[in-house]
Amino acid sequence: RGLFVCSQKCLLEHKARLHSLKQRHAQLEAQLHAESTRPYPNTAMMQKLKKEKLTVRDQMAALSSTPLVA
Q1: Contacts of 66 (CB under 8 A, 6+ apart)
Q2: Structure confidence by residue, pLDDT tens digits, 2-20
Q3: What is the pTM of this model?
Q4: How does strand 4-5 pair with strand 68-69?
Q5: Is 13 helix (H, G, I), strand (E, B) or coil?
Q6: Residue 25 and residue 55: Cα distance in Å, rounded?
Q7: Strand residues in 1-70 grouped as ranges (E)
Q8: How far apart are alpha carbons 13 and 17 in whole angstroms?
């Protein structure tokens, strides 16, 4: 992969997007924990949350692996 040259605004947007994804990932983790500790966890809901969590993780990895230069 080559370097991606972007403006200062682009760098800030990139950081903001990554921060937003990290927050969503943590939120999904908390929801999964809450669901799994219920007396009768909703397995369909847990599958949905896990799938979304993996999608968010993949998006974070893609953003993190993109080398940016201002």
Answers
A1: 1, 4, 14
A2: 566 778 888 888 889 999 9
A3: 0.83
A4: parallel
A5: helix
A6: 9
A7: 4-5, 68-69
A8: 6
Contact present, 8 and 70 (Cβ < 8 Å): yes
- Structural Rg of the chain based on CA atoms: 16
How many angstroms separate the Cα of 17 from the Cα of each of 5, 11, 22, 29, 45?
17, 10, 9, 18, 26
What residue type is 33 in one-letter code? H
Q: Residues 31, 49: contact at Cβ < 8 Å? A: yes
**Tens digits of per-residue pLDDT, 11-68?**
888 889 999 999 999 999 999 999 999 999 999 999 999 999 999 999 999 988 877 7
Joined tokens for residue 32: 């999964």
Cβ–Cβ under 8 Å, residues 18 and 59: no
